[in-house]
Write a structure and sequence with these properties.
The complex is a heterotrimer of chains A (216), B (120) and C (543).
Chain A lengths: L14 H36 L1 H8 L4 H26 L3 H31 L19 H39 L7 H26 L2
Chain B lengths: L8 H23 L5 H21 L7 H26 L19 H5 L1 H4 L1
Helix pairs in contact in B: 1-2
Chain C lengths: L13 H5 L4 H29 L10 H36 L8 H24 L12 H5 L4 H28 L12 H33 L12 H18 L2 H15 L6 H14 L15 H29 L8 H24 L1 H7 L3 H31 L5 H28 L13 H31 L58
Helix pairs in contact in C: 2-3, 2-4, 2-16, 3-4, 3-6, 3-7, 3-14, 4-6, 6-7, 7-8, 7-9, 7-10, 9-11, 9-12, 9-14, 10-11, 11-12, 12-14, 12-15, 14-15, 15-16
The chains are: A mainly alpha (216), B mainly alpha (120), C mainly alpha (543).
Chain lengths: 216, 120, 543
Amino acid sequence: MNRTSSIVAMQFDDSEQQHSAALLGMWIFLATEVLFFGGLFVAYTVYRYEYSDAFAEGSEHLAIWSGAVMTGLLLMGSLLIALSENVFERDHMHRVFWNLISTAVLGILFLSFEFYEYHDLIKHQLFPGAAFHWPEKQSTPLSGRSVEIYFVLFFCMTGLHALHMIIGISLVSGLAFYLRYSKNPRRLKNPLTVIGLYWHFVDIIWIFLFPLFYLI
Amino acid sequence: MTSAKQVSSTQLIWTCVALMLLLLLTVGLFQLPLGSAHLIAGLSIAFLKTLLILAIFMNLKGGSGVLRLTAAVGILWLCFAILGIISDYTTRGWQETLDPGLEQGTHYSSSDRVEASTAD
Amino acid sequence: MATHQSYLSDGTTLRSWLMTLDHKRIAILYMVSLTFFFFVGGAAAVLFRLELITPQGDLVSSDTYNRLFSIHGIIMVWFFLIPAVPNVLGNFLVPLMIGARDLAFPRLNLASWYLFMAGGLFTLYVVIAGGVDTGWTFYTPYSSTYANSHVILAATGVFITGFSSILTGLNFIVTIHTMRCPGLKWFRLPLFIWSMYSTSLIMVLATPILAVTLALVAVERLLGVGIFDPGIGGDPLLFQHLFWFYSHPAVYIMILPGMGVISEIIPCFSRKPIFGYEFIAMASLAIAILGFLVWGHHMFVSGQSLYAGLFFSLLSMLVAVPSAVKVFNWTATLYKGSISLTTPMLYALGFIGLFTMGGLTGICLATLAFDVHVHDTYFIIAHFHYIMVGGMVMAYLGGMHFWWPKITGRMYSEWLGRINALIVFAGFNMTFFPQFILGYLGNPRRYHTYPGEFQVFHIMSTLGASILGIGYLLPLFYLLWSLKYGKRACDNPWDATGLEWATTSPPPAHNFRETPVIREPAYQYETPHSDSKNKPNPKTRLT
């Protein structure tokens, strides 16, 4: 979507048309992303309805403070990237660069917390599959399995979110360096807006994952 | 779809403060013994946060109607999926035949299997 | 005209085709690859139709039979029916019809062709490596636990192709919203654009759910956890819900574009403005939206709650309303029109009849009690082939014949075209009408053997299929023949309205020499009663 060869691409009449096409394209993409995560949210709803006790048991293995800090990190990143658009309008490219870099660093911090949490769960044999171990698994045939489903959903949903974070961090830091070394940074307005929207969207997904997995 | 008005920096910062306060609120509420209301509280606060981010950070406030419609459609369609599917699970095993002579329909769902040892 | 270079002569190297950003060339890329996939899927159908000549399983084993119908379904649904009209005709026509130079994101458009081909190669690899035996629906827990064929590979192929259709849909919606030429208001758009818009909505909103569902099946198979396997805590009905939340709307991806094609052909060869323009346009949107709320009618006998079944049954009947609105409006357009039975028109008329049959049997199936009786029988097969093949493939062929002069700049042999339209119609009915009877009598689908009393219907069906096969091969030859020996087409051989006919045949690389301006509604054909000496010429409507 980031066309860089000229300011207005051949198929558009003017930069305004190009800008609205880029915006609408990104919003439609985000709507498809809502439904992409949506399949998992549906699965979550159904299993939360069927196995509400198992979900409560499973969530006790997650640290609420860590989830809260992670939410905070993402919100800070969102603020910085939203501010950088304002700064961009006033042509302070140096500050845009540092805003974007800080956003990426906050994202990396978020991922470190998340991967530490994964590490901890795997250590306690809570990663679903053959290695999954739950004390009650032996006593009744399926009770451990329903907790396992909680962890399947946890790893799938946060994992997909982490994948989006990794893409987001690469986009933001890539854009930062591109902006810094570009001869005409003004034409990166559309990419900046579009990548900002993506970051905020990934943020919103986490805002829902936090209460659904940590606060049960 | 003219280019949207920018949101001022002070507005952005205040929004972030509000989001942080909501985060503290949701963690704080979780410490209270609310039982199943936790889910409602958590989700309502999450919706509030989402609205703030959509309106201010993502600038739907100054965006065109088409963009708002796109965002609404994305959320609405997710609601279609969730409501349609959960309507099946919640209505299973209700009185399924009005004729007393007929045997009532039986549903075997996965949760039946889990509680098999305790149910009967 | 000669001074203006057409898009076809704008570079002739392989590279100029594979790296092109021109929507018209990408449409041709899709056309070639889709035709290939269509004949691969068709070959599978030939094999299992041959097997079904006799009641015993003497040609292929049950295992091979399962793989044959699975690959037939997977290829025909995802590699032919869903992309057929949107990606070939839509890609070619959407910018032309709205007076734009290209789609909004040409690179994305090319990328979606590459994604499509990547998905296709996965699927072809599955065919070579031994196939998949789950049916095109990948139902769990069979697909996730028991099937020992290449489920993950096939699912990956479909997953990748899904993204291709998401990107195409996104591109169309953005293009239609932002790039209409001056004066082209929403209610002046050709109805083909309305149906493309509705189709794109479905592609964008439904396909992601399929992607994530298939990903979950892969996770379940890889980790051995029970997301959909009831034996270890999962829920197989959840899979069906998620799958049909995509796949039922996807059925409308397979028919809405066809309706768009018909809405272009009918007024042109009746020489009348289309009857009830706004109703047809809104019916497209209504089908797209209502189509999302009816998925549960695939699960009446799967253990879904009775109340959900009632709800979905009612909504399914509601979808019939906008579909019927379209059929009535097409018929009303024909009424007192000056009809010429050209090749595209024959396909269009065939479409109306066959689609109505398919639609009416669909209402039967939406009725709970009747569905319990014929569920998973040949009745279902016949019903959806009347929609998919009788509807969509007829519309695709009709559209190809209608726009062939514009796409290639050549005319095909009109007589061969007309004869072929009749062959397809006859072959189709002979193949699938007996299957309604078979299903009603209780012959279940997906078995390679059947009781001897059904043999006569199966033989009729196989015989019809071979006629249908001729009907599909013949256009391949005479259309290719026309490329070299066909008469050169003029800019507007059908005297049709619409911007695509206002430019040269074939169009120049950037579609129009100058941006067109629209001053009146679509389909301004002279009615036969008025003074018809002045044939409509779209150029007079342009400044």
